[in-house]
Amino acid sequence: MKHDITSIIKRYNDDPTRLMDILIDVQSALGYLSDSTIEQIAKILDVSRVDVVQTVSFYHFFARAPRGKYTVYLNDSVVAGFYGRENVKEAFDAAAGIKFGEVTADGLIGLFNTPCIGMNDQEPAAIINERIFTKLTPAKARILISGMKAGKSIDQLMQEVLESNAKPSLKNSMIENNIIKKGAVIFSDYIPGSALKKVLNLSSLEVINIMKNAALRGRGGAGFPTGMKWDVARKIHSRTKYIFCNADEGEPGTFKDRVILTAMPKLVFEGMALAAYAVGARDGIFYLRNEYRYMREYLEGVLKEMRADRLLGTAICGKKGFDFDVRIQFGAGAYVCGEESALIESAEGKRGEPRDRPPFPVEKGYLQKPTVVNNVETFGSVVRIIQNGAAWYNGMGTEHSKGTKVLSISGDCANPGIYEVEWGFSVNDILKMAGAEDVQAVQIGGPSGSCIAPNEFGRILAYEDLATGGSLIIIGKNRDLLKDVVLNFQRFFADESCGSCVPCRALTVVCVKLMERVIEGKAAKTDLDDMISWAEIMKKNRCGLGQTAMNPVISTIKKFRELYDKKITAKDERFNPGFDLKSAVSDYDAIVGEK
Amino acid sequence: MGTFVKFYIDGKECIARHGTQLVKAACENNIYIPTLCNYPGIPPKGACRICAVIVNDKAVTACTTKVSESIVVHNNTPELEKFRKSVVEMLLSEGNHFCPSCEKSGTCELQALAYRYRVTVSGFPYMFPFREIEAWHPKLMKDHNRCIQCKRCIRGIKNDQRKSIFAFGKRGTHVEINIDHDASEGISDELAQRSMDICPVGAILRKRKGFDVPIGRRKYDNKPIGSDL
User: What are the C-alpha distances in Å from A290 to residues A100, A117, A418, B136?
Assistant: First the structure.
């Protein structure tokens, strides 16, 4: 066992900044990270044991105790709930004879909850031993558990629950791509390498100017101009620079990066190589969320092919001095790592806590070197812009939002899946396209975005109106918006706060408590006023995720006030229905023997 | 050393060397910006957010901001003071802070700030979390009830081999400071004392030594926090 750990760490040259890879590999080999394992890792890396613990305990896929030979992580996103997750959960519970959060006494099966795994268009879904099981039903849950008890392999288990009409996007997988609308930028015909060959005759500045003329903005949600970011990195004099692809698609309801990576992986890697050419970088890191670990072999294979075709590696396309390669860095389960500086911290083997800025990553990023971080879709767009020109790209979209946007549409609609549309599309048009009727609300841009009511469905998707990273969750009239949606989102933020900034750490938890009170009909009007006033406090958190972590409650109090008012039963504003006198004095009552 | 630059805090003209931390530069100009997670001589972290100021119309933390020519800083505004009071209240709500039984009472920065902002009761619901007291270490006690997760100990204390003695564990509301068994073994009395002193509250205490300053002569008994610039 000790030998295993030593040889794994040797693979990473005893480098503590590769702690994430080390922990992932050690956990794969040993099943979990025991105290003595952690001790050994710390010793070999020559760091304190607590320095290893700080990383291990931050990520929810790292296990400090055994989680079963078969480990089920059942998604608990809002849309999973819409599609019958509770029944599936109960079936797993009953068949395995344990509750979620537990492992069977024989150590065979562990059942756990996990936040959105990027399968919103095929829920309920679960990760079992790094493989994804989609469209689960209580019957399938029972089949899976009895298969586990019979010692069947993951492939066998998957065959047993695979529907005959399924069209998996990858070998040995149940996952479907569901690309419903193809657009001109991401999902159109593509010959790998054509953009790379085209830039060989251009200077790095010319490439950047094309990006600036195309007015390409980052597709992760913040919308920072890509050309400007690259230009800063290009101008900094440094022998080492890094290109990062942010594939830590963690915003609940988003799954478009998963589909882009499955259908068009070379497009994304080629975009990274173009960025490397423009800024003068040799090393690329592709940060992929752990939920998508099933893609590892597939993507490694794609990278190998590209190296063989000289689209990656040394002397790309035969051009001497144009060297660039990509390695895949896995996360281990933490939403906040989608924030670019947290992502870099994580890639350095640390807790995924966002950094103070300035300095920005583009000045001092990974290992303190200039680092360009762009989203999967941004890199894909870059290739097309080089191929077809800035003017072509510029001709699509609105005045301030050029090109197309890939949307992940899920929830109460007939056709959940992937839609690539030009910016400027209205919400109404989207609902029509997706086959959604009787819509109560649409959550735009995931929980950190905003929840809009029908009177706003005429609004358009664009940076100047409804900016979005691409997640649209359609909420039907039959749903309990506060309980099924808002409470779920607020619990998600409380679980995913990194815990560094006081307002985010404290108020996300308080907010969950108050929402529970609202739903139970025990809240006072002053509770709502309090939560609205806290929006200002949250704005002073360090990162964008902390700043938006109360958006679910704030945006719904503003737009669906009547739902909240219905829950406020106390006539007198000064009366606090949340105070339960009986439970408050229960200790005393027990001592003095009163009931 | 940078050259001297002129800048403004609440309309007052100030002078400091270019690149000075804003908290320190303000102090040099006799202006107090409240801090908690900041500690002179260790890298700032911007974790508690209490030093939030507005610099050139943007909200930033003064501990992570460096002075440059002609920046316009808003510090003592009703909105910022209200926010700062909220930070103190949030910290009081999320932990278990019972001043009368705490050895750091009178020298505690959180308590001193609570007095400064006249906090009588927190405006946020009290969480009363269940937290442990760690007493295994021969020289140190760690009372997690009082910890405000400012990371001053993590950033400021290393052992002779420059290894971490303290580090964060878990995340979100569950974050806690862990003490390393091996790295803290055999630490000197001086380092144990420094660990206690670097803690703004009573979360890190030295064993077998305490209450040695009588009430009335403790740090903030007579001079409120922020008055000793």
Answer: 21, 9, 21, 36
- How many whole angstroms separate alpha carbon B183 and alpha carbon B193? 16
- Tell me how far apart the terminal alpha carbons of chain A are, to the nearest angstrom: 57
What per-residue confidence (pLDDT) applies to A302?
Answer: 98
> Across the interface, which of B52, B164, B180 has its CB nearest the CB of A540?
B52
> What pLDDT is recorded for position A2?
62
Q: Which of A47, A53, A499 sits opposite B149 (nearest CB)?
A: A499
pLDDT of A575 higher than 90: no
Min distance A302 CA to chain B CA atoms (Å): 35
Full set of structural domains in chain A with CATH: 2-56 (no CATH), 70-161 (3.40.30.10), 181-394 (3.40.50.11540), 404-479 (3.10.20.600), 482-567 (1.20.1440.230)
**ipTM of this complex prediction, to 2 decimal places:** 0.96
Under the phi-then-psi rule, with left for phi > 0, alpha for psi from -120 to 50, and beta for the rest, what region is A177?
A: alpha
The answer, for A47 touching chain B at a CB cutoff of 8 Å, is yes
Torsion of CA A587, A589, A592, A595, to 10 degrees: -140
Query: Directed axis angle between helix A525-538 and helix A551-559, to 10°?
Result: 130
Residues B93 and B177 in one domain: yes
Averaged pLDDT of chain A: 95
A507 and B172 within 8 Å at the Cβ level: the answer is: no
Q: Suggest the residue from A50, A336, A509 to mutate for an interface test with chain B (most B CBs closer than 10 A).
A: A50
pLDDT at A166: 87
Report yes or no: B164 and A51 within 8 Å, Cβ to Cβ: yes
Element (H, E) at B200: none
Say whether pLDDT at A325 is over 90: yes
Q: Which of A327, A159, A185 is nearest to A244 (CA)?
A: A327
A364 touching chain B per CB within 8 A: no
Chain A residues touching residue B79 (CB < 8 angstroms): 536
